[in-house]
């Protein structure tokens, strides 16, 4: 489904991605791991069109999305659950859902009732502004917002960031629910417990490249890779 | 206290009239800046275009000319904003200052063209019939047109507030002020939103120019005076905030009017003193609508 080839990208003075190759098959969940500063978020931003690549290519089901604007990438079927959630603080939950469904309505299985069935807590907070929500609720709202665009591929960047363990479990359940609905996912995660729980496969980044790829079970049974690339035992 | 109030009633009413005008002007400026980081320094020039349109169309004793001026100004404002949006697009990834310089250049060109076409004399515009007299307000004679201006300004303020705070289009605008990258990640083309917002914002400026013409007339330099006042309102109110623009406009309206009436020598000091005071207490304005993100 997603094919990334030789992707180079970065910011004004520094190239962060040094040639990323990554394939994500339809309906699979890929956990993207790596130490801080290896380029995980830059990769997600480049895939979404928020950062313009200097070389390489991004294809989604054969369609060339390399260097396209974020709204074009979104309409092609890619959705982002960004690091730090980035919900629109002054807008209510209802307004978020309506805005997200503006373009995505009728293009796939997700509508407001279905998203609330997956994330029931949001249903109790419809009239609250995003700024009044807890961190976990904001994360659920960010997930709901992404799903309502009816994406074929969802990019999640550190969904557990800054959340209490009990809330992380809720997010994990939501991701499992999305997976059960057939959503293809790339999940950047520092929380190995969450990554292992949701991912079919693990990809590890180091120094701006994807340097390792294996099924999750295999990755968990071979602790040497994790030790070498992530610095964990 | 009541005696003071009575003595200064005319100044206070004038302050509301100025405040209503400033709100209509500043709200466009504030949303465009808060939403798209486009600081439109041509806003004052657009206002003056409206005032000169009133000079051209308002003739004799009829409503026809005044309404024609309003209609033409609305269309001209919409088009000017859309063109401006296109012109700033190539600079979208450049620093704010580059875009500000472009709009400053445009405003200088517009002001020069107006001065060539209309000359450098102060031109006056008479209010439409029925509004050219004065009414008795608590014992003082007060121009009817200014009272109407206060009313129209408040109605416009209410309409803009309702659209931005209570409609789905308004939600799109507020979301764009808060985090426009995430709006585009929903598949929405930011550039179209920018064209619409700049168009409507500029339309409010030209319409305000027509509405103000019977009070302030039209003259070279009025654009800069107005732009400066609108910028002060935006800074005091907070970028991208409707409520901030309204409160800021009402405060600056009173500061301008009462300041000029009571302490004419210090009027400018009071205006910018208010600005400095607000910035010291609330560096991001009274109601900052823009939320920083990493």
UniProtKB/TrEMBL annotation, chain A:
InterPro entries tied to this protein: AAA+_ATPase, ABC_transporter-like_ATP-bd, ABC_transporter-like_CS, BCAA_Transport_ATP-bd_LivF, P-loop_NTPase
Gene3D superfamilies with a match to the protein in the record: P-loop containing nucleotide triphosphate hydrolases
Any one GO molecular-function label of the UniProt entry: ATP binding
Pfam families: ABC_tran
SMART domains cross-referenced by the UniProt entry: AAA
Keyword Chaperone belongs to the record: no
Alphabetical keyword list: Amino-acid transport, ATP-binding, Nucleotide-binding, Transport
Domain ABC transporter: 2-232
GO annotation (BP), single: L-amino acid transport
SUPFAM superfamilies noted in UniProt: P-loop containing nucleoside triphosphate hydrolases
Similarity remark: Belongs to the ABC transporter superfamily.
Database matches in PANTHER family: ABC TRANSPORTER ATP-BINDING PROTEIN (PTHR43820:SF2), HIGH-AFFINITY BRANCHED-CHAIN AMINO ACID TRANSPORT ATP-BINDING PROTEIN LIVF (PTHR43820)
Name of the featured protein: Amino acid/amide ABC transporter ATP-binding protein 2, HAAT family
Species this protein is from: Geodermatophilus sabuli
Automatic annotation (TrEMBL), chain B:
Any Gene Ontology CC annotation: plasma membrane
Sequence intervals crossing the membrane: 12-34, 41-60, 66-88, 100-119, 145-164, 195-216, 228-250, 262-281
Gene Ontology MF terms in the entry: transmembrane transporter activity
Membrane topology annotation: Multi-pass membrane protein
UniProt-annotated location(s): Cell membrane
InterPro entries: ABC_transp_permease, BCAA_transport_permease
Record key words, sorted: Amino-acid transport, Cell membrane, Membrane, Transmembrane, Transmembrane helix, Transport
Example GO biological process: amino acid transport
Membrane listed as a keyword: yes
Keyword Transport: yes
Similarity remark: Belongs to the binding-protein-dependent transport system permease family. LivHM subfamily.
The name this protein goes by in its record: Amino acid/amide ABC transporter membrane protein 1, HAAT family
């Amino acid at each position: 489904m997603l094919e990334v080839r030789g992707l180079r990208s970065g910011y004004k003075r520094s190239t962060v991605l040094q040639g990323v190759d990554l394939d994500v098959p339809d309906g699979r969940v890929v956990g993207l791991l790596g130490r801080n500063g290896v380029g995980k978020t830059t990769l997600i931003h480049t895939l979404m069109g928020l950062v313009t690549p200097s070389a390489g290519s991004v294809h989604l089901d054969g369609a060339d999305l390399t260097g396209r604007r974020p709204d074009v990438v979104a309409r092609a079927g890619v959705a982002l659950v960004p690091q730090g959630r980035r919900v629109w603080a002054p807008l209510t939950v209802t307004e978020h859902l309506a805005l997200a469904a503006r373009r995505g309505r009728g293009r796939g299985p997700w509508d407001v009732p279905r998203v609330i069935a997956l994330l029931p807590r949001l249903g109790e907070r419809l009239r609250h502004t995003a700024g009044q929500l807890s961190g976990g609720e904001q994360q659920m709202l960010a997930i709901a917002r992404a799903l309502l665009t009816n994406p074929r591929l969802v990019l999640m960047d550190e969904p557990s960031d800054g959340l209490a363990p009990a809330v992380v479990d809720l997010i994990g359940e939501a991701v499992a629910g999305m997976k059960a609905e057939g959503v293809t996912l790339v999940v950047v995660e520092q929380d190995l417990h969450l990554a292992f729980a949701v991912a079919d496969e693990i990809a590890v980044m180091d120094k701006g490249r994807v340097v390792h790829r294996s099924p999750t079970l295999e990755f968990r049974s071979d602790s040497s890779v994790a030790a070498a690339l992530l610095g964990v035992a | 206290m009541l005696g003071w109030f009575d003595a200064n009633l005319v100044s206070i009413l004038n302050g509301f009239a100025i405040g209503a005008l400033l709100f209509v002007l500043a709200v466009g400026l504030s949303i465009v800046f808060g939403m798209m980081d486009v600081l439109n320094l041509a806003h004052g020039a657009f206002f003056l275009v409206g005032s000169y349109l009133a000079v051209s169309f308002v003739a004799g004793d009829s409503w026809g000319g005044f309404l024609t001026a309003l209609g033409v100004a609305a269309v001209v404002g919409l088009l000017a904003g859309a063109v401006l949006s296109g012109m700033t697009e190539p600079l979208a990834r450049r620093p704010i200052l580059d875009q500000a310089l472009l709009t400053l250049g445009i405003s200088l060109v517009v002001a020069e063209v107006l001065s060539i076409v209309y000359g450098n004399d102060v031109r006056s515009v008479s209010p439409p019939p029925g509004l050219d007299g004065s009414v008795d307000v608590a014992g003082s004679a007060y121009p009817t047109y200014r009272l109407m201006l206060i009313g129209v300004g408040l109605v416009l303020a209410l309409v803009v507030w309702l659209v931005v705070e209570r409609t789905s289009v308004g939600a799109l605008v507020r979301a764009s002020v808060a985090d426009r990258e995430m709006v585009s990640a929903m598949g929405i083309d930011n550039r179209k939103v920018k064209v619409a917002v700049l168009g409507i914002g500029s339309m409010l400026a030209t319409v305000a120019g027509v509405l103000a013409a019977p009070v302030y007339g039209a003259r070279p330099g009025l654009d800069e005076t107005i732009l400066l006042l609108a910028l002060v309102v935006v800074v005091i109110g907070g970028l991208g905030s409707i409520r901030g623009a309204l409160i800021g406009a009402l405060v600056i309206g009173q500061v301008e009017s009462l300041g000029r009436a009571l302490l004419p020598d210090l009027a400018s000091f009071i205006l910018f003193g208010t600005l400095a005071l607000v910035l010291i207490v609330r560096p991001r304005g009274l109601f900052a609508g823009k939320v920083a993100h990493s």
